[in-house]
Write a structure and sequence with these properties.
The protein has 176 residues and is α/β, with parallel strands linked by helices. The protein starts with 10 loop residues before the first helix and ends with a helix.
Length: 176
């Protein structure tokens, strides 16, 4: 009799989700030579958006086209959910966020329409329409009202093949 063993592939990292307020609406950025604000619903969220670590394209942690990054616009701003990959970066990032070493978000975008108010010092720029290209987990956000936390995926949200493997593993453990 051969013992078959199965594991929940990647549940240790894939079981972790980053939940974030990636882009706050009507919130002032830090001074970048000007102050910036994002108008509600300024972003079209339908494109191919990537989730990165520290704006580094080599540190891809999610993507809307693969459904490992989910974005939605709320009253507060653009919220993101990122299924962390079972990689060194994914596991390290989960630990850094859990410890509080990394607690902010940033984003990359192409401006289609903005308004400038030079009566403020520094000048105030309001983004009214833009194409979102990336959200990024960062230790140094321009918007201090962003946040990110790690959330454990409930077993009920595991993929069906993961649940089948878990049941098989538990059944085999009972036989041993």
């Amino acid at each position: 009799m051969t013992i078959e063993r199965r594991a929940i592939s990647g549940l240790s990292a894939q079981g972790k989700i980053l939940k974030a307020l990636a882009i706050p609406y009507n919130s002032r950025s830090r001074d970048m030579g000007f102050i910036e604000m994002i108008s509600p619903n300024a972003f079209d969220l339908s494109g191919d958006v990537r989730a990165l670590y520290e704006h580094d394209r080599q540190h891809l942690i999610g993507r809307t086209t693969s459904k490992t990054l989910r974005l939605k616009s709320t009253v507060k701003g653009v919220e993101a959910e990122i299924d962390l990959p079972n990689t060194s970066i994914g596991n390290d990032l989960a630990e850094l966020v859990k410890r509080g070493d990394i607690s902010g978000m940033s984003f990359g975008f192409i401006v289609e329409a903005d308004e400038w108010d030079y009566d403020h010092q520094p000048a105030l720029r309001t983004i009214t329409k833009a194409v979102l290209k990336e959200v990024t987990v960062t230790s140094d956000p321009a918007y201090l009202d962003t946040n990110v936390v790690v959330s454990e995926r409930a077993l009920s949200k595991a993929k069906p093949d993961q649940l089948i493997n878990l049941r098989a593993e538990l059944a085999l453990m009972e036989l041993i």
